[in-house]
Structures are given as C-alpha cells and as structure tokens.
Amino acid sequence: MAATANQVRIIGGRHRGRRLHFRPGPGLRPTPDRVRETLFNWLQGEIHGARCLDLFAGSGALGLEALSRGAAYVLAIESNRRAAQSLRDNVERIGEAASVEVRGADALRLLKAAPERGFDIVFVDPPFASTLLPETCRLLEQNGWLGPAALVYLEQDAHQPWPPMPPNWTILREGAAGQSAHRLLRRSIPG
Fold first, then answer.
1. Structural domain boundaries, residue 68
2. pTM of the model
3. Which end of the chain is more exposed for a tag (fewer CB within 10 A), N or C?
4. What is the CATH number of the domain that holds 119?
5. Is residue 120 part of a domain?
6. What is the pLDDT of residues 30-67, one digit of tens each?
7. Is residue 145 part of a domain?
8. Can you give the pLDDT at residue 186?
9. What is the pLDDT of residue 10?
C-alpha cells in the first residue's frame, strides 16, 4: 500500500504496519515503500544492532524502519521544526523514545563537528532540489561520522548525475524507481 496524504507506514519488523504522520513541508518527500523495501533487503544482514544516522530525516521513515527491523539506535536530524516535532511525536507513539534521538538541526552544520563515535549505517536523502549531497558525503568521511566499514545509503533525483564520492567508498548496490535514484555504498578505512 502506498503512502497516503501526510502519512507513511513502516513496512517491516516489529512495528510493521504502523503509520507515521508528518506535516508537509518544502522538500519533504518520504522514501516510497518500494524503495524502502529494496533498501532494507540490501541491509538485511547488517541492520541488527546497528547505530544509524538519518540525515535530512523528514518523516523519519528510513530511521524508524531501521529501528523496527532491529537497529539499536537512531539519531535523526531534521532542520524543519514542524517536521522534527512530528518525528518526535511518532517516536513517542510507537514507544521508541529510548532508542531514537531527534535533533532539530541543520545537517551540514552538525556534520562539521566530530561525533562521539562513528555510525554503522547512514541514510542521506536531502531534498531533491538541493545540492547538499557532495558536501554531506565529504563531511561524513572527513569528520569521523562513519564507522570503519559503515554503509551509506544515498538518494537523489534520478535525472541528476551522481556527484563524486570519497575514494574509499565502494558502490555495493544501486537502482532507480520513479523520480528517485538510490545507492548503497560501503566505506573502507583509507589506507
């Protein structure tokens, strides 16, 4: 079932079928069910116990889907205050406040600082009209946001060419559906 107006559903795991409500906003475009299903099939053996970072979280569909499927912790970053509050409300509604931290913050500003430790899986799905993808990837690699063998999921407008990636990131999978192109990459420690 596709997302209806201002809601999207979790499609797998312990919260399967739960609906996430969100407030519409500029650039807010939840990842469609079909794309999320593909992504989480790709991540099947990697998600259990993972620490996840959901940048440009919007509705929170990617991070909360990861949590539903066994991730241990999700840090969701969303600069739109209304969207961030909707995400907090959804986290409370599904009873996962201990496992999800929602920060109302600008993703690039946040990435300029160093985290306590690197993340295992990072979701990067900025608004399609933006040019944030290259700088986001550079800061993730440069500032210690990624664990040694982290997985990075990227989503962008299918009509745009992919920007250059850090040289130690390897494309594992890629695809397209409708207006969305997506890639899953693995980081290796620069040698």
1. 7-187
2. 0.90
3. C
4. 3.40.50.150
5. yes
6. 667 788 899 999 999 999 999 999 999 988 889 999 99
7. yes
8. 97
9. 84
User: Do residues 79 and 109 touch, judged by C-beta distance below 8 A?
Assistant: no
Name the domain count of the chain: 1
Kindly state the tokens that stand for 159.
Answer: 């009509």
How far is 64 from 87, CA to CA, in rounded Å?
A: 9
**Residue 101 within a domain:** yes
Instruction: In whole angstroms, give the CA distance from residue 120 to residue 160.
Output: 27
d(CA 121, CA 7): 24
Overall residue count recorded for the chain in this entry: 191
**Can you read off the two tokens belonging to residue 176?**
């397209």
d(CA 185, CA 150): 8
Nearest to 59 by CA among 91, 34, 35, 98: 91
> pLDDT tier at 27 (50, 70, 90 boundaries)?
low
pLDDT of residue 191: 55
Kindly state whether residue 44 falls inside one of the protein's structural domains. Answer: yes
**What does each C-alpha distance from 10 to 15, 17, 47 come to in angstroms?**
6, 5, 15
pLDDT in tens, 142-174: 999 999 999 999 999 999 999 999 999 999 999
